[in-house]
Amino acid sequence: MEEFEALLNESLEIDTPQEGSVVKGKVLAIEAGQAIIDVGYKMEGRVDLKEFAQPGEAPEIEVGDEVEVFLRNVENARGEAVISHEMARREAAWDRLEEAYGKEERVEGAIFGRVKGGFTVDLGGAVAFLPGSQVDVRPVRDAGPLMGLKQPFQILKMDRRRGNIVVSRRAILEESRAEQRAEVIGNLAEGQTVDGVVKNITEYGAFVDLGGVDGLLHVTDMAWRRVNDPREILSIGETVKVQVIKINKETHRISLGMKQLQDDPWDTVIAKYPLDSTHTGRVTNITDYGAFVELEAGVEGLVHVSEMSWTKKNVHPGKIVSTSQEVEVMVLEIDTAKRRVSLGLKQTMRNPWEVFAETHPEGTPVEGEVKNITEFGLFIGLEGDIDGMVHLSDLTWEGRGEDVIGDYRKGDIVKAVVSEVDTEKERISLSIKAAGGDPYAEAIGGVKRGSIITVEVTKIEDGGIEVEYEGMKSFIRRSDLARDRADQRPERFGVGDKVDVRVTNVDSKNRRLGLSIKAREIAEEKDAVEQFGSSDSGASLGDILGAALKGDRD
Q: Is the pTM here over 0.90, yes or no?
């Protein structure tokens, strides 16, 4: 009996399926969206039909089909086996995927759902996670066309215990693309002309598809002229003819050019733009140091800020010219090696200082506005947008310039006279005091050294007297007040007295007259002696002077 019981138990263990294992069963019927499956030993179970359907497809199962199912429980409350076809597929899939992962082989699957950060992929029973960054080599805005499509994936990571699988579609595409790039690049050579399709446009250039491999067409290689925006000459999807400039075999980067297929305008620059010739160009760009002017497509020259205006110094170029403005320029220098042309804007106009010198010779009266006041004078705005300077010494005839400069304000309109024009140093000297004439010159117009003039005493001092002649002040020292020392007393004169004096010196530079009463008396004595006798004849000086005075009365 014991032997029989042991044999019976062994037979039951062999023939009865174990819970948690995959067993084979036969479809007995399909009803109410479920398949009734016989798993042996009069055990039957039910499986939803959706477990037999591939993502996006109808279930593929018929009565009589033999299928694999996972036995979860031998019997439930209704006396039926609890089975799952999906779990059977998952177990088989995990075995297959682990083997593929170990061999770094590709696996086939289909994207069937979207989750946070990516998508879910059915790998023949096992569900894997596809991160959004691993869908394609470039960001995918619409994944609709990829849903339900069977395609290869690369397993990046898997953990059976936790049930986690991470896959990548991008790795497959990059590998295929690398093989394709290598093949295309192998057929290309530097200097070769090929056709390509513009795939993408950026601010620095455009990417051109050469048939499976992209090349960069930099903005500086699109045309000989300046291209501010590649979209000016290219559009996405456009077919263009380009030249292969450089191929980097290691990085598989290809540099392309369009302007290399056109004639270089610099080959004829020297012939077309000789030095000192003038041309009309268009302002293409303005910087802090000048403005770029396009003479023709592909040929630009720089007008340095110092060559822009005769009169506007330390001014931003944008305040002199504007972008797209047509301007006349002169060619100053050409450097074909560096492909540079130096241009001048002010050279096309006459030097305003030369024009002013021609139209305003020395002594010409002018009128202008006070532009600036400095410690050494005034700057006056003149015609031609230039300034002239009035030095302190040219502000007034009387007193010091430092004392009267405070009477002027910016914006005052003043009259002056041109005293000097230096075209090389671009300087114009003006004189305000000369604009109203020279009172000194007018006062001493007929006065010469030795002349006898009448002056008025204006002030008495210990050292002499101050006198005035036609508005001009002079000072007669004590020693020049009389011939006789006893009469050289300032107090014998009174303010307002009229006195005849002799001019001993005319100092035009310092604007002073040298006057002397003593010199006049000596001169009168000499004249009297010559006319009425000599002191050697026995006549006294008193007799001679008396006779001279009598002669004057007669």
A: no
